[in-house]
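Page header: ASSEMBLY MODEL / two components / 793 residues total.
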Amino acid sequence: MRKLLIVDDEEGVRSLVRMTLESDDYEILEARRGDDALRLVREHKPDLVLLDVMLPDTTGIDVCRTLKSDPETASLTIVMLTAKAQGRDLEEAEEAGADGYFTKPFSPIALLRRVDNIFQEQT
Amino acid sequence: MALVVVAIVVGVLGAWQVTSARSSQRSQIVNGELTAARLASSALASGMYSRLQLVTTLANQNVADLISQESPPQLQKLADQIRALYPEFSSLAVDRADGTLLTVSPANRGRRGENVKNKPVFAGFAKTKKPYVSPAFHASGLGLVIGLAAPFYYDGTKTLAGVIVCTIKVSDFGSIIGSSHLQSGGSIVVLDQSASVLTGPEAGTRVRRAAYTTVSAALAGHEGTTESAVPGFSGNRFVAYSPVKNLGWAVLVEQPTSALNGPIGALTFRLALIDLLVLVVIVAAAVGLARLLAALASERDESAAVLASVGEGVAIVDALGRVVRLNPALERLSGLDTDSAKGRDWMDAFPFLDERSQVVPWRESVVCRAIAERTVVASHGFTRTLVTASGASVPVAVTAAPLVNDDGQVTGAVAVLRDVSREREVDELKSSLVSTVSHELRTPLTMIRGFSELLLSRSDLDSARSKQALEHIHDSSRRLGRLIDDLLSVSRIESGGLGSELRPTDLQQVVNASLVAFASNGGDRVVAELPGDLPAVVADPDQVVQVLTNLVSNALKYSKSNAPVRIGARVAGDEVHVSVTDHGIGMTPEEAAQVFGKFSRVDRPEVREVGGTGLGLYITRRLVDMMGGSIWVRSKGGEGSVFTFSLRVASPSDSAGDTEEQVYAQAFDR
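Prediction written out in full:
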């Protein structure tokens, strides 16, 4: 069973992701804030992190950078969720080591497909 | 001023020209007179002596006859001969050497034998024994005459035989002198040795030598020229005087001083004309020059005034990039003045930083590029920052245009610096608005789209999840609606499109209406405690509802989920103060100072967690403003905030248009 962490300050978004991906194959973890996300990653070692860029305490970019620079978590697949479609955010995400991004508003079906693909590649 | 000096110089020059011309003309006149006087004097001397000599010669030929006979025909013949030559002789007589009158012309007949030893002519002759010309004397029957004594001698001897005495009437004397020696008018005055005037208007009178320096000088044997009185003429004259040798007489040649006036007048006129012309030319030139100078000065004043009145900073830079001049606006902006900036390199006086806070090199500065590229160059957007003399950073927009002279050479550049602090602020505000709004739009949109897609595509969702999805869609659409309302409110407030309909309003009613919105959403935490005797206030009830809704909504958002929110009111003078108190996160004084600004959001995690556009309190403040009230906040970080707004107590005059009953009904309608 795959573990997946969704980090977003909006309860609605987390709920949407959970409802989309919840199945026998995936275990869904949720975090509102960056510090919660880092704690959950270390505790549960998820296979994939869906990371919002705008977080109450920090930015998703910083969380991504922190995870990618830690050897223990560097191999973690991180997909950024961003409401900002501007090039600069994407550049920053890439620099921080993100493996991909999803732009809000997103299609839950497309997200499911994407997540399935990522896990298939991992195996 | 210069004009006056020129006029004075011209005037002095003219006067000097006239004076010098006058003096040269005067000396020309008097020198001419002196020449005339000399000629007249020598002509007079030789004329008299040639007469005497001739008479002597004629007498010598008939000596014996003249002496022996009483009135010989020879005498008559001699007299006729002499008269033929010199008709001016009025009488003729022969005196014997012993002084007795021998024979005379018919006029003197009867005086034969008379002793004439003491008569002026014979006596004069007797002194010198030489041909003699007497001073004027009175002769009976002839009037005033001068006498000539011509001695004659016995044949071949030096023994005096007698003297022939001729007289000339003074009144006839003028014709002897003539006026041929005078070149240009004037007249000759001859005086004898006794200062008797022989010619001219006063001929026949004797003058006092002392009265006329010219007369006394000439009679003393001197010659000269002067400007003085002349016998027989009025006023001062130009006079030349000369002695007549041997006769002891004087010749004066005079002209009126007005003689100078003709030529000098003409000269003066010509000079005046020339001076006038010169003056006209000078005046014309001066006027032209003055106009040109005035035009230049006004142009300079104008450009200086334009420079001074321009609100933007303007600098003039030479072709080498050195500062030439700053206008007052730039002096204020940069903290430099023209004196201290003049001659300094542009980049030295005005260091600019780019958007990465790096110093802009000279090559890349708009001034350098304007000069090099000969075209107007402007900095992009609000990227430039000027470091002022005091070290402060001012965002500026810089535009530079090359200065090109008539020959097409670039002589420098004009740089215009505009303080864009406000624009940059607005720009940053706009960016934050776009970012906030796009975030605030995308989040509910994400949920509406996502949950609706899930509902449509997933038939396996149970009813609980379906309901949850629908609730999310519903909340999100309401959230979008609120955002749009807020944006529209701001837009209407800003454009003045939102007005208040002020009327006496019952606050209790308004508070009740506000609380309806929170019934299912924290309303149980809100406590409204209004005094029962609260007077009506002047307000727009709908807007007061909006104000209270915003304040209560914030109070609930920023405090713990179980913390109470209290609405209170009290009368303060002619106002009612309504307050909303929470025990939430609170604010620092700095945060509180900014909280009513547009798009102002306190930059703290707790606030970001809650979400919002930063428009709510801005709208609230503007609504309170429109109702004539004010709003303020007392807050302490971690302890909570009290937002208070004031509204004016209604008076009967506020009900204009409403009947008293209606006002009464509104005020007490609970």
